[in-house]
Amino acid sequence: MVAASRRVLLGSSLAAATVTAVAACGGTDDEGGAGGAPREGGTLRVGALGSVEALTKDPHGLLSNNSDFLIMSLVYDALTVPGGGTGVAPRLAESWSVADDAKTWTFTIAEGASFHDGTPVIAADVVASMKRIIVDMDAAFKVPVPPEQITALDDRTVQMVTEDPNSQLPLLLRLVTFTTREGADATAFNGTGPFKLEDYTDGNARLVRFDGWHGPRPLLDAIEVTRFESTDAMMNALQGGQIDLATTAGAVSARLAEESGAFTVHRRPNDAALPIVMRVADGPFADVRVRTAMRLIADRDALVQQALSGYGTVANDVLGTGDAFYDTSLPQRAQDLDTARSLLAEAGFDLDATYTLYTIDEAFGEVAAATLFAEQAAKAGVTIEVVEQDAGTFYDQTWCKADLYTMFWGTNDSVAFYAQKVLQSSSETNETGWASEDFDRAYGDLLAATDPAAQEDASHRMQRLEYDESGYLLWGMADGIDLHTPAVNGLSTAPGFGWVLLEGAWLAS
Amino acid sequence: MIRFLAALAVRAGLLLVVLAAVYAAADALPGDPVRLAMGPTASPADVEARRESLGLDRPLPARFADWLSGLVQGDLGTTVRGQPINDLLGDRLASTLLLTGLTFAFVLVVALAWAALWSARPRGRFGRTSAVGTSILVATPEFVLGTLLVLVFALVLGLLPATTVVGADGRLATPLMLVLPVLALGLPHAAWQTRVNRAAIAEAAAMPHVEQARLDGVPERRVVTRHVLPLAAPTIAASLATMVGTLLAGAVVVETLFNYPGAGQLVAGSLESRDTTLLVSLTALCGLVVVAALVIADAIRLWALRGRR
Amino acid sequence: MKRRLVPLAAWVALVALAPLLPITAGEGAMPFADPGAGHPLGTDALGRDVLAGAFEGGLLLLTVAAAIALIVTTLSALLGSLAALHRRAGRAIDAAADAFILVPPVIGVLLVVLAWPGGGLPALLAATVLFGVPYCAKVMRSAASAVAATGYVEAARASGESTARVIAVEMLPNLAPTLVTQLGLRFTEGLYVVSAVAFLRLPGVLDEGNWAVMVRDNAPGMLLNPWAVAAPAACLLITVILVHTGLGARREEP
Q: Which residue windows are transmembrane per the record (chain B) (predicted)?
């Protein structure tokens, strides 16, 4: 459902030229809107998606709503945030270091950090918050450290000792590690972040600049977050002038904005992975030649153009495309139906059978990609039937179990993240049943390595194995897409959850 | 009075049966609410720990009994994410009742006026137009009608806001935001009710003693108020009472379509997230409203039948 | 009666034959393209031809709605007749109708369909029948009660004819007008439920393109190509109008 005032409709034929799209490169900041020198002041009105039943006021709770996550990320400080050349930038932790065992980490709390009520942040607050996440909220997956191994060395230093070597800990702690005051009500919005809460109703919030923030002073006076149930409703509000920035709006909305010419499309490359997942452990795709054939069947350009309306980039079957050590030397796979056919014949793949590709409408373009891939497979003689499932059924019966399904990962951009969650053989959520000793060893090497060269070497070995053998057909990466009026400037282009980093944003007059 | 109380007791009993059935059915759905809430990054151990923290590992009857005793005390329990359902529903229930209440009033007025005009001129152009017009409206799904309304009134004409936006103060930015939702929800129901009203009036007008009153020279106005309307009232009331349920069901679709901050939006979400407690709480509240409407209709019927036994 | 059915019959024939027309949905085009060469009504959310989609999207939808109407009406007529003859059955049907009124049909249908993953069309049919029959049977019972009170039904029963035979021979033929009316109403009701299910994005049911799904999926691009929404919506409306004028709900039910 899309609507606009007549003004917008008329405007569409006139000003199609104000649209800019940022070049597809990582890093932070920023493409020009109306531009000029950064200006202080103003209230940024932001729209974010969020459903009622998932609302939460607890920064340590399950933040499934974009709107909740945005509010928390502005009100609270996590230890680290996405950004910078390595993908990790400091926030509440101004620096960190690891001992030679690659297990003993120390984080130093930023100088001058204080809560919105004026109390300085001490290490005990961080320790209590991490323990609350792990123990009270049953969310050990957010902080992969045994709770008793999180301790305060002094007022400004937190030590975390992981069970096994983990050189990637600061990366894994990005954004999820919001700190509240020890012993105080954790849902009171008494954060340490760049903005403090002024008003809150039903997932909508008005936040004002916290002048005592330890980081660089934000330029905006205030940010108003409005929660929307659907992208359509959010787009209506953007076009009706009720918000200035629509976050994670999706490709169709982006096209709409480009056609109307009234809005700027802000693209964050490497934002979401939409792989097709093939079961390695057993079933029709257990033969690596079959998996390679499927990877050669995919017309990646067509998938990006049609399923993502062009708002994405072709990928190369390696998860973690935003990683600092992403291996660009691996040859780009492209459609090669002849080779695919002969590989399938070699492997004795049954071309008379019909294979079910389960999919789920979780991300923009996910179902469309499944449908298009089925059409492409038909050209190689493989009959694929696409079955869409609802989330409840999908995660119960298909995920980590089925032979062939699509998946959506929008949470991280690192090779190590995917290795830990879905690729290493010991993972309980190994989506493909892939068990590669070589890969596990390379991942172990990555976690144990403390110098960048050794890390890069290990990471490249992991990626090579993933490229050759794993069960993932990663045809492309969807851009994150935010839409805004030309006055909005200074948005982050960091992948993953970079869209929540609004402390650097400013409004041109 | 005894008949009335008996009817009330039967309806309350039925509601209890329905709630138990919905609870059991929702609980039996494939899918794990805790996994859905925590997402794919959580490990199976985390999911299991969370399930225990929430008490979801207890057997179904125990959980239902718990919820039921909470309901009696006005506490609906918590969602899978640990949010109190009372907090979640408070304002939204009021919003939904505002939307459906306004729509109900709209339907009441439009359907009575339309049926009266139609009954007065059953043939001719107005009658034919009404017959076709109500047919179309009755059968147009709310979301198709809503989509078309937005296309015309918001998109092409730019007269009305297409979506509902709530500020941080929790209020609608403008009352105009209610217009399209009320129309999308109300027009099909108004058309239906118009047909029911007209049929009930025609049937009542055809009764022998009404004809007789006319022949006796009783003024037309008096014939309508003293004879026709009392005869038609039980049918009209029964239909209106039934409509309360379908209005609430329609709100599920309309609220989603217009981003309206009501409780209807939660229905699809609670099913999607397999949140049994939330779903059955919504069903209970909806059921209570419907029961209230049906009981009022029962009362009207008994009143209309008084002395005629 | 017969003449009024002509437009409906013609429309059904058109919908049934349209998929055979040599218009293909095509692939590879830009989503929500304006009407133009090759795409008289533009393209939809996946870049397919809207006109071809509208041609292909009717048959299944109409078939499902017709199946719902037939099953619900037939079952209800049988149950309603039975209830008119036996008080106890009558009370049971009243209680069932009163109970089902308390659950919004959307919740009920969603519950049944979700409980049966991969159930697809049969699940949807079962759900709509389950939630349609009690109410329809109640209506049928009041019509059947009038028939049951006539002399020849009472005479037939008195002469010891079986209930099944009384229903089949004496009652159902006399219920014909109500049956036709109910058939029309249940058809639109079926169309309505199927559309609502489509709107709430219940996967696995009616995933293939149909008018209701087209309206839903193309609504986000309404600004880019209004035809992607207007064409399937118009098809739905035409169907509904023709069914109503054809099967004529002349006698309203309370």
A: 97-120, 132-160, 172-192, 231-258, 278-304
- Which residues on neighbouring strands pair with residue A264, listed in sequence order? A484
CB spacing of A52 vs B83 below 8 angstroms: no
Whether B275 and A1 lie within 8 Å, measured CB to CB: no
Model confidence over B204-258: pLDDT tens digits? 888 788 888 888 888 878 888 788 888 888 888 888 888 888 888 888 888 888 8
What is the arithmetic mean of pLDDT over B105-129? 87
Q: Tell me the chain C residues in contact with residue A386 when contact means C-beta distances shorter than 8 Å.
A: 207
CATH of the domain at A433: 3.10.105.10
* The CATH classification of domain B91-304, taken from the options 3.40.640.10, 3.40.50.720, 1.10.3720.10, 2.40.30.170: 1.10.3720.10
The pair of three-digit structure tokens given for residue B12, joined into one six-digit string: 């309350």
The answer to whether residue A327 is domain-embedded is yes
Q: What are chain A's partners, defined as 3 or more CB pairs within 8 angstroms? A: B, C
Give yes or no for a contact between C180 and C98, defined as CB atoms under 8 angstroms apart.
no
Q: Domain residues of chain B, as ranges?
A: 2-72, 91-304
A227 falls within a domain? yes
Distance, in angstroms, between B188 CA and closest chain A CA? Answer: 20
Question: A265 in a domain, yes or no?
Answer: no
Residue numbers in chain A where pLDDT is lower than 70: 1-35, 411-412
A167 plus A52 within the same structural domain: yes
Task: Flag whether residue B25 sits within 8 Å of chain C, measured between CB atoms.
Answer: yes
Domain count for chain A, please give it.
2
Please give the model's pTM, rounded to 2 decimal places.
Answer: 0.82
Q: How far is CA A422 from CA A141, A359, A429, A463, C15, in A?
A: 13, 18, 6, 14, 48
C-alpha dihedral, A112 to A115 to A117 to A120, nearest 10°: -50
Do residues A208 and A301 both lie within one domain? no
> In terms of CA atoms, which chain B residue is nearest residue A141?
B42
Measured in angstroms, the CA of C132 and the nearest CA of chain A are apart by 25
Give the minimum alpha-carbon distance from C110 to chain B in angstroms, rounded to a whole number: 8
Q: Are the beta carbons of A396 and B157 separated by less than 8 Å? A: no
Supply the pLDDT for residue A16.
Answer: 29
pLDDT number for residue A35: 63
> What span, in angstroms and rounded, lies between the C-alpha atoms of A336 and A292?
11
Query: CB-based contacts of A505: which residues, under 8 Å, 6+ apart?
Result: A44, A218, A219, A220, A245, A488, A489, A490, A491
C-alpha A105/C-alpha A89 separation (Å) is 16
| Sequence letter at residue B173 | A
Residue of B nearest to C238 (CA): B136
Please report, as a single letter, which amino acid is at residue B296: I
pLDDT computed for residue B307 by the predictor: 55
* Chain A residues lying within 8 Å of B265, measured CB to CB: 51-52, 229
Shortest alpha-carbon distance between residue C241 and chain B (Å): 6
Q: How far apart are CA C138 and CA C84, in angstroms?
A: 10
d(CA B275, CA B80): 6
Of A235, A252, A387, the CB nearest to C45: A252
Structural domain range at position A51: 3-244+485-507
Check residue B227 and report its DSSP letter.
I
The DSSP-derived string for A343-356 is: HHHHHT--SSSEEE
Contact B271 C111 (CB under 8 A): yes
| pLDDT exceeds 90 at position B299 | no
Q: Least CA distance to A235: which residue of chain B?
A: B163
Same domain membership, residue A499 and residue A429: no
Instruction: Give the CATH number for residue A493.
Output: 3.40.190.10
Residues A321 and A303 in one domain: yes
pLDDT attached to residue A411: 64
The alpha carbon of residue C218 is apart from the nearest alpha carbon of chain A, in Å, by 8
Those residues of chain A whose CB sits closer than 8 Å to some CB in chain C are 1-4, 9, 231-232, 235, 252-253, 255-256, 259-260, 302, 305-306, 309, 360-361, 368, 371-372, 375, 386-390, 392-393, 397
Whole-angstrom Cα distance, residue A290 to residue A303?
A: 20
